[in-house]
C-alpha cells in the first residue's frame, strides 16, 4: 500500500524558520513533490525532489532522503502570507501513475 | 502559464440530481485528474485520464463517472447526487513525460448537496 504522513497542524512566528516533515512508505519511488494551498484556493507547485539532498529555492528549501523515506520542507524568514496548507505528494511509479498525496499540514504564521 | 478552468466556483444541488462538473485546460496536456478534498482527509483521487476517451478509476470512484471526449476537457458526473458528495472538487492536468511532471490545478468547485 501507499502511505504518506505529515503533521496535521503547525504554528510558527513571523520571521522564524519552520520545518514541515513528510514520511512515506510506497511500493516504488519516482520523486516527491511539495505543494502550497492557501485557504479556498487551488494547490500550487513548490518543489520536486528525486535525488537525495537539499533543493533550495529562495526562502523555501526541500530535502529528501530516499533510504529513510523522508522529506522536509523548510521555510525561512516566515511571512504572514506563508500561512497555508502544505501538501506532500509522492510519485510511486515511473510512467503515467497518479501522485499519492498526504493529508497536508496547515501552517499558521503568527505575529 | 497553464490555465485549468473549472466551470463553477460554487454549486448547490439537491439530492438525486444529476450534476456535471466541467474542467478545461489550455496547454494540450494529455493527463487530467479529478480529486475531492475534505477536511482531515486531504486530496482523494476520483478518476483520471491519460488520453481522449480513456479513463481510469482512482481511489474513490463510487457514485461518479467521467467523460473525456476532447483532449482539453474532462467532465465529472454525479449520476444521482447525495449529501455525502458535498465537497470541494479539484481538477488537475499534467503533460506526459513520466510522473515527475507537476500537476496544475483548477481553482476548485465547492459543491453542496442539500
Give a verbal description of the structure.
- The complex is a heterodimer of chains A (111) and B (114).
- With 111 residues, chain A is mainly β.
- Helix content of chain A is 0%, strand content 54%.
- In chain A, the strands form two sheets. In chain A, strands 2, 4, 5, 9, 10 and 11 form a six-stranded mixed beta sheet that branches. In chain A, strands 1-3-8-7-6 form a five-stranded antiparallel beta sheet, with no helix packed on it.
- Chain A is globular and about 40 Å long.
- In chain A, 35% of the residues are buried.
- The model of chain A has no long low-confidence stretch (mean pLDDT 93).
- In chain B, 0% of the residues lie in helices and 52% in strands.
- Chain B contains no helices and twelve strands.
- Chain B is globular, with a radius of gyration of 13 Å.
- The termini of chain B are far apart.
- The interface between A and B is medium-sized, with 27 and 23 residues.
What is the tally of beta strands of chain B?
12
Report the sheet with the most strands of chain A, covering strand number, pairing sense and barrel closure.
6 strands, mixed
Note the total helix count of chain B. 0
Quaternary organisation of the protein chains = heterodimer
| Strand residue content of chain B | over 45%
Q: Structural class given helices, strands, pairing of chain A?
A: mainly beta
Order of helices and strands of chain B: EEEEEEEEEEEE
Tell me the radius of gyration of chain A.
Answer: 14 Å
What is the overall number of helices of chain A? 0
* Sequence stretches where pLDDT stays below 50 over 5 or more residues of chain A: none
Q: Please give the alpha-carbon distance between the first and last residues of chain A.
A: 41 Å
Largest sheet of chain B: 7 strands, mixed
Strand content range of chain A:
over 45%
The overall average pLDDT of chain B, rounded, is 92
Number of β-strand runs of chain A: 11
Shape of chain B: globular
Amino acid at each position: 500500500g501507499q502511505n504518506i504522513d505529515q503533521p496535521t497542524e503547525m504554528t510558527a512566528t513571523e520571521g522564524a524558520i519552520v520545518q514541515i516533515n513528510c514520511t512515506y512508505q510506497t511500493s516504488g519511488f519516482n520523486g516527491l513533490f511539495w505543494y502550497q494551498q492557501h485557504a479556498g484556493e487551488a494547490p500550487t507547485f513548490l518543489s520536486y525532489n528525486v535525488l537525495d539532498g537539499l533543493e533550495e529555492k529562495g526562502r523555501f528549501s526541500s530535502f529528501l532522503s530516499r533510504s529513510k523515506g523522508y522529506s522536509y520542507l523548510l521555510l525561512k524568514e516566515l511571512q504572514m502570507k506563508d500561512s497555508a496548507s502544505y501538501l506532500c505528494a509522492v510519485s510511486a511509479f515511473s510512467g503515467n501513475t497518479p501522485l499519492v498525496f498526504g493529508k497536508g499540514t496547515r501552517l499558521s504564521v503568527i505575529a | 502559464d497553464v490555465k485549468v478552468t473549472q466551470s463553477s466556483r460554487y454549486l448547490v444541488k439537491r439530492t438525486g440530481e444529476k450534476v456535471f462538473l466541467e474542467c478545461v485546460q489550455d496547454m494540450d496536456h494529455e493527463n487530467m485528474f479529478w480529486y475531492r478534498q475534505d477536511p482531515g482527509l486531504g486530496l482523494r483521487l476520483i478518476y483520471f485520464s491519460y488520453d481522449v476517451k480513456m479513463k481510469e478509476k482512482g481511489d474513490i470512484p463510487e457514485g461518479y463517472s467521467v467523460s473525456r471526449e476532447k483532449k482539453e476537457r474532462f467532465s465529472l458526473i454525479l449520476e444521482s447526487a447525495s449529501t455525502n458528495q458535498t465537497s470541494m472538487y479539484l481538477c488537475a492536468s499534467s503533460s506526459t513525460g513520466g510522473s515527475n511532471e507537476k500537476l496544475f490545478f483548477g481553482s476548485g468547485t465547492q459543491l453542496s448537496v442539500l
